Amino acid sequence: MDGDNQTTVTEFLLLGLSDHEEVVFGMFLGMYIVTISGNFLIVLVINCDPHLHTPMYFFLANLSSVDICFSSVTVPKALVNHMLGSKSISYKECMAQMYFLFIFGNLDGFLLSVMAYDRYVAICHPLHYTLIMRPRLCVLLVVISWVITNLHALLHILLMVQLIFCSHNAVNHFFCDPYLVLKLSCSDTFINDVTAFIEGAVIFLTPFICIVVSYGYIYSKVLKMPSAQGIRKAMSTCGSHLTAVCLFYGAIIGVYAHPYSSYSSQDAVASVIFTVVTPMANPFIYSLRNRDIKGALRKIILRS
To answer: How does the record classify its membrane topology (predicted)?
Structure first.
């Protein structure tokens, strides 16, 4: 495109998910309130009960904190835009939104892999659990997850800000989806595409492989357990985590398993599950079948 005919984009238009905006607004508002309150309650309960100051619940508290942030990256802006009757988001806001999406979206995966490793140690090496899962290692695993995802986000945003956006600025979503925004650029996006494919695949597959390997060892250990009670205890320990893993990775595969040139309403639903439903569901997944969480919550209620 000739430089004289270019008009640099200063804002993007978020077209949303549906023409029934009132319904979407009510749904998002309700889910966001549940997400914030549910995850905050998990963090509060774990911090207030000394019996829950263990590696497993330390990682769960971190996961809940990340879910609060992840949901807060996209939903509040969509709600504010609806209340103001606007669809716009500034260029800088869009870049910032994508940066934090890269961080928190991938942090969930890394924390789930760390939690899988914790379950592997607890079931396969119970006698050495406290020796292996020391507080210093737990903090180190979380810090490494933060560093990797921040570097991942920084790489993609630095590549994104090098692009030129011309007259097309309508994003067919309720937030700045990086792959949809990338399609709007009138620059050559080859480097961005290759980086997203190779480096993005590494960021996606690394925690996923860790989870699969951890559960492979867990499954092998469970098969060798002599008592049905031991098997039930092991499976109850892993059940909630496996449910969260299936929901998280199922949504990711639903969103990113095919080219965005064929973006459809099914992809929009999968994207909502990934960015909104998963952070909302995790507190229920980890608390409904967890006696420790329910017991600690009961103590807090009785104390107050």
So the answer is: Multi-pass membrane protein
